[in-house]
Amino acid sequence: MIKRNQNFANLTAGYLFPEIARRRKEYQAAHPDAKIISLGIGNTTEPLTPHIVEGMKNYVEDLGTAAGYSGYGDEQGNTALRKKIAEVYYKGMADASEVFVSDGAKCDIARIQTLFGSKVKVAVQDPAYPVYVDGSVVVGAAGKNNGSGYKGISYLPCTPENNFFPNLKSVKKNSIIYFCSPNNPTGATATKEQLKELVDFSIKNDCIIIYDAAYSAFIRDENLPKTIYEVEGARKCAIEINSFSKPAGFTGVRLGWSVVPNELKFSDGSLVNKDWNRVMTTLFNGASNIAQAGGIAALDDTGLAEMKGLVDYYLQNGRLIKTALEGENFKKAGVEIYFTGNGPYVWAKFPGMKSWEVFDKILNECNVVTTPGAGFGPSGESFIRFSSFGHRADVEEACSRLAKLTF
Asked: N or C: more exposed end of the chain, with fewer CB within 10 A?
């Protein structure tokens, strides 16, 4: 028999959302009449907008004709969509040839490890989106789990004490650095000065930044960068990954992209762009043509206006959650609330309590599902992430219940 890949035996980080589902199911079985509201996972809830639906519907109808049928497309993505992404999001900071369309940011983040192999050093923000660590474990780059993390990963604490921006001194030379802004789960958004520090460090220490910008559409502060390429030097050291999932509601439709600048090189001088092109043409067969038609519609004037309205809807949900957590009961308990208005998550610290303890308390007393911060890394302990993705009526009801929570 073939032996099991021991990298999977070493995989412990991916427990978070299955464990949430298990506890919810167990609670629901014990309380069948309870109406549980989820402020947990970052899954969009509102319908696709009319113009984007029309773009996909027209494409589907064309597929039913001899003239409109299309089979395989370019693995790198529809040329028109690549051009539109470069034009709308990067405005001269990246060329269409550097844009690779995919089936979503998570998929790109997982695939990107194949560029670097099992010997690469890895640094991640802590707390961080679990796939950064999980992907490193699967390819064998993480090392053994020592009980508080993986030996081969440099964890970079991002806490209120350092304004959610890490001390980079612990990052080893020649590392890949996973960095997310606006951050999942903390919601913190890096300033241009902070990103300049990150870029300068990476260039000096021969690191490559994997910059996750999946929530960039939520940034409302015009002084905050929406792409790392607004920072001088970033094209020499950063790969950016983004997605239609949150701004267009494509969590199930699946459409994203990565940007790999031509200036980005490996130590032997070869272009990272060429190897990423090889990954995409070898391990991937292209994003759905139907989804890409929706992406093209999303990036014209009408589509952009619709996406802005959708994002504004979720941001208002976030404000409602923040207000509920500022109630008297939470103040007395010393709960600290962090919400910038530039991301979809409210990050709250419950001093003296464990994350899963708070999760169970809120589920049991409010029938509301949240996400325990400890599941995102060691620095997430005592925190809870509240997601603003939800129907307004459900969010309002959840806020009403939360306001009555006692400690």
From this structure: N
